[in-house]
Amino acid sequence: MSNDADAKTRHVIELRWAALETTARQFDQFCEAAPHVAALLRRIPRERSRWDDPANVFVLPSDKRR
Amino acid sequence: MSTDLHYLTIAEGAERLRQRTLSPVDWVEALLTRIEGFDGELHAFLALTAAAARAQAVAAEREIVAGSYRGPLHGVPYALKDIYDTAGIPTTAQSWVCQGRIPQRDAFAQRRLVDAGAILVGKLATHEFAYGGPSFDLPAPPARNPWGLTHFTGGSSSGSGVAVAAGLVPGALGSDTGGSIRHPAAHCGIVGFKPTAGLVSRAGVIPLSYSYDTCGPMAWTVEDCAILLGAIAGYDADDPQSADVPIPDYRTAIGRDIRGLRIGVVRHFFEADKPTDAPIKAAIATALKELAALGAEIEDVTLAPLDDFAACQWVITCAEANAIHDDNLRHRMTDYGENFRYRILPGATLSAADYVQAQRLRRQLIAETRQKMEGFDVLLTATVPTVAPVVENMTLSSVLASRGITAAFNTLGWPALALCCGFSEAGLPLSLTIAGKPFDEATVLRVADAYERATPWRRRRPDLAQAAA
Lengths: 66, 469
Known about the structure:
The structure holds 2 protein chains of 2 kinds.
Chain A: H1 3-17, H2 24-42
Chain B: H1 10-18, H2 24-42, E1 45-48, H3 50-65, E2 77-81, H4 108-115, E3 119-124, H5 158-165, E4 171-176, H6 182-188, E5 191-194, E6 214-219, H7 222-232, E7 262-265, H8 267-273, H9 278-293, E8 297-300, H10 306-331, H11 338-344, H12 352-372, E9 378-382, H13 398-401, H14 404-412, E10 416-423, E11 429-436, H15 441-454, H16 464-468
Parallel strand pairs in B: 2-3, 2-4, 7-8, 7-9
Antiparallel strand pairs in B: 1-3, 4-6, 5-6, 5-10, 9-11, 10-11
């Protein structure tokens, strides 16, 4: 199977996991956007210290805001 | 001061209302006439609230004459991007998904403007759910740029940009998740101000991203943005992100000098990371000379690569947008426009780890930039990399490509203001961005206002007859 066919098969599975049904045109557009998305994801570092908190950790509201 | 009622700024009109040399009834009527004359081509408005506006104008006039003047927005017309809930008035996010949706409550910001005595004229065009566009498969056509009808307005607060630039209203509210206030402000030649995350409540505003959505003003001048921001800023328990911070009188930042203020130029954003059109670079070079002549100290500063900010903003926004639209995407996929689908569907495949890693990167970028910012009062960079493109030449992916610079300041959550810094040879607006430290909106406004007053750009308005030609 060519790389293109591999990628398309992967995208079919991804959409099925997301429970999304697309038309043929919507699927083609999804495939067209995929390389842009992959490039963006490559910018996100994966190796982090376990103490490296995300920016959206929950903070209990202070008394004033409760 | 403008003699045309439709080109009065909020500050000019407010002063005349206060002195009772202008009636809010006349101002509202002049704008409704102008909207009737030009909006058939501009498509800035999705809905007019003409009858209510006329009644409110009469009431405002009565109050002002009776000596009950409420302040600089009393009797001032404005309009809202159609993602702000308005009680009893359709709020649709310009989507088939929300046709017929009529909220029962006003958004927080709308309530604040009503309390200030301002007069809602109508609801403005947006890219679908503040994330698509320009789209031709939605319930209404996309808004058109008054500087050239074939050119892109920018988005997603497209109607807000157009309505202010064309003199249909003196001020409007937009929302900004990746640049949606500053992008149309840039292409429409107006001022757009994304305040610090948490300064203005998002309660009652149709969400796109819980991490990044920010409400803010769009107007012809920096001073008008200061007036609008002063009315809508403040703590609100209905928005978990709302910050309990003191709200200064932002108008005190207007008309001041900027001697000794330190401006960090993020040059690599628009020269290396996102190479920008030559006229924009030239206009920024000239602006830096003008700011130096006003007494500011100018120095380059290097932040993280723009792509890091953009990736962080995209992953978080797209993951959160998918959570918000999850049910409708599964059951009503075809009710969304093509542009929105193109942008949101890739987010359906993001993993939980992708989202958390992007949130970790966000914290890192904020910490790094805070350190770099220590020697500066504000940062300056380009707003968008190109002048407004021709809509016909745009592809589904081209809106994505133009958004990188603005997204950096959503990732940071810091205040960022876009303002006009000249025009291209074809007469299209150019724009620069001034960004500041968290909750230091006043310094951003001070620098932007000093620049605006020292330059001639606010004296030029779009020629609507020419734009149509």
